[in-house]
Design brief:
By secondary structure, the chain is an alpha/beta fold. It has 11 helices and 20 strands. Strand 4, helix 3 and strand 5 form a beta-alpha-beta unit. Helix 5 crosses helix 6, helix 7 runs parallel beside helix 8 and helix 8 runs parallel beside helix 9. The radius of gyration is 24 Å and the shape is globular. It binds pyridoxal-5'-phosphate (PLP). Pyridoxal-5'-phosphate (PLP) binds next to helix 10.
């Protein structure tokens, strides 16, 4: 056995022994670097970094991201409550999403969030009514559908073209700003886009920026002055050698346009803050060979990490300790779930591990735990944060009792108490 892989200076073997597997491990230092990259690239404009909570809503991570000065981009009441619990000020919160309920609009207004991003005229109408009823004028922007075709690796993460459910077409949006400019319950403060996820090129952002600034300029001519533009999230990270977006190159093009107009810039990165900060530790249960094909069966599956089976996404997987003399094979690395779509990697070249060995699945900080499920009766895994050379359990592994919480077995009809019968 050679050197042991580490996270934040701590041996992954020791973490597995102490906390069990499957286990999510986050490095606070890498999260800080994720936030700093944005802060320094865009330091010459007023910036609200609204971290997209859906990428990873764990309270400890939200708390640390908020402590670095960031706000949050949320898409539900559940995320609003998380953000409040984690100590992120409501004044830094953007409420996005195509289907906000009346209850969610009300909660956002009462909390005093920075702004809602509305995605339809009907939502604007409802927001106005709720704001009027509460006597709390709503700060809002419209999410545009800029009809940008963003080159994301997967179809489900392209959100900027006309055929998706997201946003309002530009002409319609402009008409809506103008028509509702005098509504005393509405205060139009911004305009936003979000064109997709895991975008590695600058060009689609510039195309979207162009569209957004066109709207800003035309509204200003009509006497409507917005405070900010929001370019959304989607900034690519390095799952493989390439794939990371050049933030500096993006900033070089975006900053002068924003400064020239005296606007504030809002960005909504999720993956780019936490993606590279997380790994998933899995233990090998069995290996087997069917004809020429190797299978490595681990205790982590699609219920801990859905991205490979849902999107066909790639994650690097490395043995935590290398085994001298282990043959390199091409293997499917799979979990115990009863689906042939349950895999972490397919046809992957890897040094053949033995049962009991540990594997580290990398770049899983975003859309990893957040998409975990209980399918096949599997408790969701624990999460550990490494900070200052120490590992802290920030979410307990779910118990078997947790899996049945809230369920009841009603008595058979004939056995029910007569008082229940109406
Ligand atoms: C998902 C989402 C984001 C974050 O996307 P990443 O790819 O994680 O950066 C930002 N804004 C909105 C509106 C989103 O839906």
């Amino acid at each position: 056995m050679g050197a042991v892989l580490r996270a934040g200076g701590i041996s992954l073997r020791r973490l597995a022994d102490r906390f069990g597997t499957p286990l999510y491990v986050y490095d606070a230092e890498r999260i800080r670097r994720g936030v700093d990259r944005f802060a320094s690239a865009f330091s010459s404009v007023p910036l609200l970094l609204a971290y997209a909570v859906k990428a990873n809503g764990s309270l400890a991570l939200l708390n640390r991201i908020g402590a670095l000065g960031a706000g949050a981009d949320i898409v539900s009441l559940g995320e609003l409550r998380r953000v409040e619990r984690a100590g992120i000020p409501a004044g830094r919160v953007i409420f996005s999403g195509v289907g906000k309920t009346e209850r969610e609009l009300e909660a956002g207004l009462r909390a005093g969030i920075h702004a809602f991003h509305a995605e339809s005229q009907a939502e604007v109408d409802l927001l106005s009514r709720v704001a009027g009823r509460l006597g709390l004028p709503a700060r809002l922007g419209l999410r545009l559908n800029p009809d940008v075709h963003s080159p994301t690796p997967f179809a489900y993460t392209r959100t900027g073209h006309a055929a998706t459910k997201f946003g309002i077409p530009v002409r319609e949006a402009e008409a809506l700003y103008t028509a509702r400019a005098d509504d005393p319950n509405l205060h139009f403060v911004g305009v936003g886009v979000h064109i997709g996820s895991q975008i590695a090129e600058v060009a689609p952002y510039l195309e979207a920026l162009d569209t957004v600034l066109g709207v800003v300029d035309r509204l200003l001519e009509g006497g409507i002055a917005l405070e900010y533009v929001d370019l959304g999230g989607g900034f690519g990270v390095a799952y493989e050698a390439d794939g990371a977006l050049d933030l500096e190159a993006l900033a070089t093009r975006v900053v002068p346009e924003i400064r020239g107009r005296g606007l504030r810039l809002v960005l909504e990165p999720g993956r780019a803050i936490v993606g590279e900060a997380g790994l998933l530790l899995a233990r090998v249960l069995y290996t087997k060979r069917v004809d020429a094909k190797h299978f490595i069966v681990t205790d982590a599956s699609m219920t801990e990490l859905l991205r490979p089976s849902h999107y066909g996404a790639f994650h690097r997987i490395r043995p935590v300790e290398r085994r001298a003399g282990a043959p390199t094979v091409r293997a499917d690395i799979v979990g115990p779930v009863c689906e042939s779509g349950d895999f972490l990697a397919r046809g992957r070249r890897i040094e053949l591990p033995e049962p009991g060995d540990l594997l580290a699945v990398e770049t899983v900080g975003a859309y990893g735990f957040a998409m975990a499920s209980n399918y096949n009766g599997r408790p969701r895994p624990a999460e550990v944060l490494i900070e200052g050379g120490e590992a802290v359990l920030v979410r307990e592994r779910e118990s078997l009792e947790d899996l049945m919480r809230g369920e009841t077995i009603p008595p058979l009809p004939g056995e029910r108490d007569v008082r229940d019968k109406v």
